[in-house]
Design a protein that fits this description.
Distance between the termini: 23 Å
Number of strands: 16
Largest sheet: 6 strands, antiparallel
Mean pLDDT: 87
Number of helices: 9
Structural class: alpha/beta
Order of helices and strands: HEEHHHEEEHEEEEEHEHEEEHHEE
Low-confidence stretches: 1-27
C-alpha cells in the first residue's frame, strides 16, 4: 500500500511539469517491457499501443497510438527504473521514498531518452516504439554527495608494484557473501565499493572524482572476457585481480586480497586509476541484464 501511494505521488510529480495532455483517443494503454543493461548502462523500454480501429483512417489511428505511447512513456519509465540498485543498501525506490523530490527529477530522464522510430505492425493495428535511457550522467548525478574526492589510504612501505593503465576484476564465479555464510554472485550497482579482506576501504563512493561518476560510473560491468571494447577505460596494461568475496546487504561490493589492495594504494598512479573509475568487472552470464 505504501508503495502504491508512493508511485501515485511520484506520477503526480512527474507530470506536473508536462504540458496538458491531449484528449484520450481510446481507453487502451500501451503494453510495456523494460530491461536494464549494465554493459551499456542504459534502461531499455519498449512500448506497444494498439490503434483504435473504431475511428478515423489508418494513418490517423497510428498517429494517435504513437501519441498515446509518448504520453505514457514517462510513467512507464518511472516504474521501470525503481528497482535499479544504487549501492549495497539502496534501490532507486528506496531513494525516492527517502527523498520524494527525486521523482520530479527523474522526469527529465524521459526528455533525454533516445527514441527509436515508431514502427507499425504488419496489419497496421498497433505501433511499437523503443527508448534507451542512459544512466550516466543524469541519473548518477542525483547521488553524488561530494565535490572533492575524499583522501584514500596510502601504503607507505615498499610494495612490489608498477604503473598500470587500468584494473580488471574477475568476479564471474560464485563467491562467499561476507557475513552470511552463503555463496553468491556479484550484483551490479551504480555506486559499488571495494574493500580488502580486512575490510579496509579501497574505493568508497566519496573517494571517486565526481566527474568520473558522471562520465561512466565507478566501474564498468561485462560478461565478456574480451577486454578490447574497454581499452578506452582500462588501457593496454591493466592490473588483473580476483574478487575474493562479495559484501553488503545486497552483494554489490567487492572484496579483494590485501596484497592486491597494497599494489594499488602504494602507487599514486594506481590510486589515480581508482579515483578515475578505470575499472572493469567481469561478472557471471546473465548478471548484466535485469528485467
Amino acid at each position: 500500500m505504501y508503495r502504491s501511494a508512493l508511485l501515485t505521488f511520484g506520477f503526480c510529480l512527474l507530470f506536473s511539469g508536462f504540458a496538458p495532455p491531449l484528449p484520450a483517443q481510446n481507453s487502451l494503454t500501451p503494453t510495456a517491457s523494460s530491461a536494464f543493461n549494465w554493459q551499456t548502462s542504459t534502461l531499455e523500454v519498449t512500448l506497444t499501443q494498439e490503434a483504435d480501429l473504431t475511428t478515423g483512417n489508418t494513418p490517423a489511428r497510428l498517429y494517435r497510438a504513437q501519441q498515446q505511447i509518448e504520453r505514457e512513456f514517462a510513467a512507464v519509465l518511472f516504474t521501470s527504473i525503481l528497482p535499479l540498485q544504487i549501492d549495497s543498501t539502496r534501490t532507486l525506490e528506496d531513494a525516492v521514498r527517502d527523498r520524494p523530490e527525486l521523482a520530479a527529477r527523474i522526469s527529465a530522464l524521459a526528455d533525454a531518452a533516445e527514441r527509436g522510430l515508431p514502427r507499425p505492425n504488419r496489419d497496421m493495428t498497433s505501433v511499437t516504439r523503443q527508448y534507451r535511457v542512459p544512466i550516466f550522467p543524469d541519473l548518477a548525478e542525483l547521488f553524488i554527495g561530494h565535490r572533492i574526492p575524499f583522501r584514500m589510504e596510502r601504503v607507505i612501505q615498499w610494495v612490489p608494484t608498477r604503473r598500470f593503465t587500468g584494473i580488471v576484476i574477475y568476479a564471474a564465479d560464485p563467491m562467499p557473501h561476507r557475513g552470511t555464510g552463503e555463496q553468491t554472485l556479484l550484483t551490479p550497482a551504480i555506486l559499488p565499493e571495494i574493500f580488502d579482506t580486512d575490510l579496509r576501504p579501497i574505493l568508497e563512493q566519496d573517494m571517486l572524482d565526481p566527474d568520473a561518476i558522471r562520465r561512466w560510473g565507478v566501474v564498468a560491468y561485462t560478461e565478456d572476457y574480451d577486454e578490447d571494447p574497454w581499452r578506452h577505460r582500462i588501457g593496454p596494461e591493466p592490473l588483473r585481480i580476483m574478487a575474493r568475496e562479495a559484501f553488503g546487504v545486497r552483494p554489490t561490493d567487492i572484496i579483494i586480497s590485501r596484497d592486491d589492495a597494497d599494489r594499488l594504494l602504494s602507487s599514486a598512479e594506481n590510486r589515480f586509476l581508482l579515483r578515475e573509475g578505470r575499472i572493469l568487472v567481469i561478472v557471471a552470464p546473465g548478471q548484466t541484464t535485469v528485467q
